[in-house]
Amino acid sequence: MQNYKIKYLLWLYIFRKKFPKIEEVDKVGKYPLLARMGVPGKTNFGSLLEYRVWEHKDDGDICNSFENLKRATWFSLGGGLFEQPLALVKEKDNVVSEWLIDWLAVK
């Protein structure tokens, strides 16, 4: 659990990649919780909907939604059982899926 936290802290500090912006900020947190996991190279990016951090608790999982990657990453570094940030993406074929952040980077 701690390995990815250290990785993302360093990654946030030194990253120089650009990421797409969320087009409809007022809809962040209002998308359905269930989404399929994207597959790199098999999907086509359409638009970024929100950043998500899943939190695991005894009584179930909680999805925390954010409008920017920096806030999502800092939240995931908190003391709970948080996963690394994911991006909720609407693909060109109108399928909504969760992507790893690295798949969003524009070089």
**Overall pLDDT:** 82
Strand coverage percent: 25-35%
Q: What ranges have pLDDT less than 50 throughout 5 or more consecutive residues?
A: none
Question: What is the first-to-last residue Cα distance?
Answer: 28 Å
Spatial strand arrangement across the major sheet = 1-5-4-2-3
Number of domains: 1
Summarize the structure.
With 107 residues, the protein is of the alpha+beta class. The chain contains two helices and five strands; from the N terminus they run αβββαββ.
Structural description of this entry:
The chain is α+β, with helices and mostly antiparallel strands. The chain has one domain (2-104). The protein has two helices and five strands. It has helices at 2-14, 69-76, and strands spanning 36-37, 45-57, 60-66, 86-91, 96-100. It has a five-stranded mixed β-sheet with strand order 1-5-4-2-3, covered by helices on one side. The longest helix is centred in the N-terminal third of the chain and has 13 residues, at 2-14.
Secondary structure layout:
Layout: H1 2-14, E1 36-37, E2 45-57, E3 60-66, H2 69-76, E4 86-91, E5 96-100
Parallel strand pairs: 1-5
Antiparallel strand pairs: 2-3, 2-4, 4-5
From the structure above, extract its key features.
single chain; 107 residues; alpha+beta; 5-stranded mixed sheet; 2 helices; 31% strand; globular
